[in-house]
């Protein structure tokens, strides 16, 4: 089994899609400070299932995603893929090429894929368990790990030898088995508690069983009594039905007689309606004549009122003419008086002139 390629996209400083091919001539990755060497190691650890942000040199997992610069937008997800060559069938799968992928989206969702098929982290861990490859494996060594091995910090040498000798997988299995045993012990304790509770409830269940037997016995007696009661009720209903039939027949005859009388009364009512209709027609003719006469009277009254107004107008006109005549006569007398007075004035003036 051999690592063939590493594909990084949107992970930390790798904004663009970057693919590193591990040929037989490549033994390591070198470069100046800040070029991203440690980010390559972090990406490998991350895709293999690393969950601790401190091991990835982060405060929170969201910082894995490329956060953008002044000239570039932030990435929407971080994606890392590792491809292995499985020609010797070291991995327990039929595929000759195995690619594991991990994605983290900015909304917090994440997923693992095995040959582009969704899977769990546990599936990937089980696949690489016997290979010595994991997120804390010494198969991938960064600069800080060399100091840890030399100084034997946190028993790092022992971990290195255990991984190299293949003991770590057995320790992991032992740890899983012990956890399962602890879980089983807890389940057994729970079962004992349940048994204790069941024993305490047995007496109550026995009492309920006795009550249930008595209930079913009473239920059977109730069925028999219900049938007898139903028979008696049915007999009384039958007798009542017969009496109601007899009464219905008598009521039917009475209804026929009443219907005949009702038809006779309806016929008389129709005759009266016809007579009333003829009377209404005659009344309509008389009403029409009365309306015509009333209309003539109203017309004559209008003419009379009009003549009265004309007479009143002529009377007023004559009175005005008489008054004007009197006024004219008075005016004539005044004019005559003025004429006589004017002539007298002329004579006096002439006499005065002659006397001078």
Radius of gyration: 65 Å
The stretches of 5 or more residues where confidence is low (pLDDT under 50) are none
The class by helix and strand makeup works out as alpha+beta
Q: What does the main sheet amount to?
A: 6 strands, antiparallel
The CATH topology of the domain at 2-165 comes to Rossmann fold
What's the order of the H and E elements? EEHEEEEHHHH
Q: Quick one: CATH superfamily of the domain at 2-165?
A: P-loop containing nucleotide triphosphate hydrolases
Overall CATH class of the domain at 2-165: Alpha Beta
Question: How does this structure look, described?
Answer:
It is a single chain. The protein is of the alpha+beta class and 356 residues long. It has a domain at 2-165: Rossmann fold (3-Layer(aba) Sandwich), CATH 3.40.50.300. Helix content is 63%, strand content 11%. The N and C termini lie far apart (180 Å).
């Amino acid at each position: 089994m051999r690592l063939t390629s590493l594909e990084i996209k949107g992970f930390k400083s790798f904004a663009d899609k970057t693919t590193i091919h591990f040929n037989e001539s490549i033994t390591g990755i070198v470069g100046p400070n800040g070029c991203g060497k440690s980010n390559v190691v972090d990406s490998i650890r991350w895709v293999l299932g690393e969950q601790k942000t401190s091991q990835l040199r982060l405060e929170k997992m969201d910082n894995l995603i490329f956060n953008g610069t002044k000239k570039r937008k932030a990435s929407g997800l971080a994606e890392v893929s590792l491809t292995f060559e499985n020609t010797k069938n070291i991995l327990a799968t039929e595929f000759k090429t195995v690619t594991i992928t991990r994605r983290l989206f900015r909304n917090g969702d994440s997923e693992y894929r095995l040959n582009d098929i969704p899977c769990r982290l546990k599936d990937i861990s089980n696949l690489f368990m016997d290979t010595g490859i994991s997120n804390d494996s010494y198969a991938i060594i960064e600069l800080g790990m060399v100091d840890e091995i030399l100084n034997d910090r946190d028993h790092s040498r022992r971990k290195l030898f255990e991984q190299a000798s293949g003991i770590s997988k057995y320790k992991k299995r032992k740890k899983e088995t012990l956890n399962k045993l602890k879980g089983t012990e807890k389940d057994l304790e729970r079962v004992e508690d349940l048994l204790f509770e069941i024993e305490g409830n047995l007496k109550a269940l026995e009492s309920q069983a006795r009550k249930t037997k008595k209930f079913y016995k009473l239920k059977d007696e109730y069925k028999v009594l219900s049938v007898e009661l139903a028979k008696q009720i049915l007999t009384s209903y039958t007798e009542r039905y017969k009496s109601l039939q007899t009464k219905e027949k008598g009521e039917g005859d009475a209804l026929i007689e009443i219907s005949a009388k009702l038809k006779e009364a309806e016929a008389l009512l129709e005759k009266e309606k016809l007579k009333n209709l003829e009377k209404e027609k005659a009344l309509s003719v008389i009403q029409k004549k009365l309306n015509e006469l009333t209309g003539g009277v109203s017309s004559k009254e209008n003419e009379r009122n009009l003549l009265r107004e004309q007479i009143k107008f002529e009377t007023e006109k004559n009175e005005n003419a008489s008054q004007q005549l009197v006024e004219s006569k008075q005016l004539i007398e005044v004019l005559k008086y003025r004429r006589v007075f004017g002539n007298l004035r002329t004579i006096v003036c002439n006499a005065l002139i002659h006397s001078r």
